[in-house]
Amino acid sequence: MGSMAPPPCHIVAVPYPGRGHVNAMLNLCRLLAARDGVSATVVVTEEWLGLLGAPAALPELGPRVRFEAIPNVIPSEHGRANDMLGFLEAVYTKMAAPFERLLDRLAAPQAIVADVFVPWTVAVGARRGVPVCAMCPLSATMFAVQYNFHRLPPAVAAGYASPDGTDPCLIEDYIPGTKSIRFTDLAPTHTNAGLLDKVLEAYFSVKKAQCVILTSFQELESDAIGALRRELPCPVYAAGPCIPFMALQEGISNPDGDGYMAWLDAQPAGSVLYVSLGSFLSVSAAQFDEIAAGLAESKARFLWVLRDADARSRVTGAAAGIAVPWTDQLRVLCHPSVGGFFTHSGMNSTLEAVYAGVPMLTLPIAFDQPTNSRLVAEVWKTGLGLKEMARGDGVIGREEIAAAVERLMRPDSAEAADMRMRAALLKDAARAAAEEGGSSWKDITSFINFVSR
Ligand code: UDP
């Protein structure tokens, strides 16, 4: 009533071109653009524009999040996993020039919000006098580890599990706020000299950004976020969970041609294990077979996301589950029939499970996944880590998988009830953080004020 409209605030967002990173950025933009006067232009490659099916806008992102494209100056999304280093090299060196040409056409934004792993944005912002906000779609814990990597003894970077060859060796002895994370959790990414170089190069730029936004939230990672706030020379905002809960609340969903929602409707409450092991990397063929056999042995009902049609037909049949190529994941996790999530521990998936209050069975592969898995199994205690159960060849056997599924899903065990109780508490915390007046709500307000100044 009579209050002045806030000044318009236009954000140019630059996600790193990978599914998890793009999703996190879109979800953040949706949350920002929910505020009066805020709009966002998301810059992706032409290929990504096609993948998103977004010539200009997407209904689930609301009318104030728009898209612009730069030419396909980086290797295609299809097959990029084959040469991770070459892909990173291209992202780091080829995108800046077409991005600047695009900026020349747009009205000057109040800020550039860029993924940590598109580090050239910091120099572009500095040249143009536009503040750059480094957006971190990893956990705050992983951000702290990578930001402070130089504090770890050189043995880690050289590829040793720990300085004296023993494990567990805790990162927290060197980097505050990283409770429970082991040196070995940083492998394989951080022991690959080429990849590590690229990661550290990105954080060198982060040090020159005007602020940092995390997709996590205060109550979830208070130790790591607290440590970052003490250490970083710039403001650190925790805006999470940056997941598509607004679309869910508004009842906007992707069409379900496979009928999995109807199938879920027909299952008993809390009885279904949702299985999704990542959009980018995948488990070995041997591990896949053990998972399929373990699930069949456990007799658990499951809904399994598998891109490959042949794999889908192999896991169903006699088993008590269905397999589909893709789901509306948050909607699935929030369905009352879902009682557990078998996940590769990608950060988006982890945040979605937290928001849904669903306990997890974790099988991390690489990058930040082992760290997320540690948080789930040892800090939040909302799930079981499978990696520790691996045999000598690194594969987790079917018996171990079947036993873990039963431990997670049993309606009558004290252990499972405890995990469910903790998951329910985090679910409440996630929702409270995002609500008006909550910690993430306030941080988003502070961020908008900071860049609108
Ligand atoms: N996802 C989805 N449907 C699926 C599988 C995955 O919508 O069937 C989404 C999921 O909700 C998440 C993203 O894909 O937003 C995966 O990101 P995450 O960080 O979990 O893992 P990544 O695939 O990047 O390793």
From TrEMBL:
Question: CDD domains, from UniProt?
Answer: GT1_Gtf-like
Q: Write down the superkingdom of origin.
A: Eukaryota
According to the UniProt entry, its GO molecular function terms are: UDP-glucosyltransferase activity
Q: Which UniProt keywords apply?
A: Glycosyltransferase, Transferase
Catalytic activity, EC: 2.4.1.-
Task: Work out whether the entry's keyword set contains Glycosyltransferase.
Answer: yes
Q: Name one Pfam family in it.
A: UDPGT
Q: Does the keyword Transferase apply?
A: yes
Q: Which SUPFAM superfamilies match?
A: UDP-Glycosyltransferase/glycogen phosphorylase
Which PANTHER family does the record match to this protein?
GLUCOSYL/GLUCURONOSYL TRANSFERASES, GLYCOSYLTRANSFERASE
For this chain, the family text in UniProt reads: Belongs to the UDP-glycosyltransferase family.
Record's protein name: Glycosyltransferase
Q: Which organism is it from?
A: Setaria italica (Foxtail millet)
Gene name of the record: LOC101771846
